[in-house]
Each structure stands twice: as C-alpha cells, then as structure tokens.
Write a structure and sequence with these properties.
Elements lengths: L16 E9 L6 E6 L7 E2 L2 E3 L6 H13 L1 E14 L4 E13 L4 H6 L3 E5 H9 L3 H11 L21 E3 L12
Parallel strand pairs: 1-6, 5-8
Antiparallel strand pairs: 1-2, 1-4, 2-3, 2-7, 5-6
Organism: Cricetulus griseus
Enzyme class: hydrolase
Subcellular location: Cytoplasm
C-alpha cells in the first residue's frame, strides 16, 4: 500500500473523508478510459484518485492525483458528480479529464510499480464492478447522459451542502472489508 509521510486527511462537516478523482479519457469522445493498478492489490484496476489536502480545491486535487498515480496531464473538464461511499465514509468529487500528455515514468510507477492501461468504457465497467463497484458507478453515470463537453471545460462550483451526491449501493453478499 502507498504511504505518504506528510499526508493530512481532510473531512467534510458530516465526517466523510474528502477525495477527488478523474475519469481520464484518451480523447473527447470519452470511449477509452485510463485505469491504474491498485497500490493495495496490484492485480486489480482502479480509477486514479485520492484524498484532498487541506485548502486544496477538488479540481486541483483530482489533477494532482492523476499526475501522481497515472502519470498523465490533461484538460480538466466537467464535474461528473460527488460520489458517496457509506461503508468507507468517503465523498469523492469525480471529474472528466482529457489526456494531453503521458509521462514515461511517473511517481507511483517508480515508487510502487503502479501500472496503467486504457480500457473501452464497457470493459472498464466490467473490470471495476467486482472489486470497486463505486468506481464502476462513475462510468455508469457517465453513460447515463453526461455527454462530452465538446471542448467546453467549465466546471460548476458547488456549495458543500449540494445535493449532487450519488450513494454507493452495498452489493449483496460482499463484505466491505474486501472492497
């Protein structure tokens, strides 16, 4: 598992850990998404993201996390939503990012051997559903009608109490300890 020595966890008013992530797409068509290997379970794929630092805006945190975990830079697009994981007490701001630069070596590839791979959206959903169902929900929401921005990269600003939350469903029979 990845360890950050100076990491400070940040929480919202209800005690949820504040996180940020990006669905990183190869193009504005949003048909191929980049997944990274999990630091905890290297044979499993995840959406790059992580905890927000104090005073950090969600969009900036999302861009930083994909740079560290996936070794990519790009154009930050729309906020897809704020996804809530009741089991882990996380709230994750999930953005769309169109990749414009791919680094050959990046922080997590060097430090922990993290890998990355492009997946068709449908394949990514299948890969994520078994061990990261909340991450699969990001892509499900994308498919449900959040159409590509066609070059418009405005991100709405949301107050802390906004009702744009998506609550993750507990898959039956799967203990939360294995997710």
């Amino acid at each position: 598992m990845k360890f950050k020595p100076n990491q400070t966890r940040t929480y919202d008013r209800e005690g949820f850990k504040k996180r940020a992530a990006c669905l990183c797409f190869r193009s504005e068509q949003e048909d191929e998404v980049l997944l990274v290997s999990s630091s905890r379970y290297p044979d499993q794929w995840i959406v790059p993201g992580g905890g927000m630092e104090p005073e950090e805006e969600p969009g900036g945190a999302a861009v930083r996390e994909v740079y560290e975990e996936a070794g990519v830079k790009g154009k930050l697009g729309r906020l897809l939503g704020i996804f809530e994981n009741q089991d882990r007490k996380h709230r994750t701001y999930v953005y769309v990012l169109t990749v414009t630069e791919i680094l050959e070596d990046w922080e997590d590839s060097v430090n922990i051997g993290r890998k990355r791979e492009w997946f068709k959206v449908e394949d990514a959903i299948k890969v994520l559903q078994c061990h990261k169902p909340v991450h699969a929900e990001y892509l499900e929401k994308l498919k449900l009608g959040c159409s590509p921005t066609n070059g418009n990269s405005t991100v709405p600003s949301l107050p802390d109490n906004n009702a744009l939350f998506v609550t993750a469903a507990q898959p039956s029979g799967v203990p939360s300890s294995i997710r």
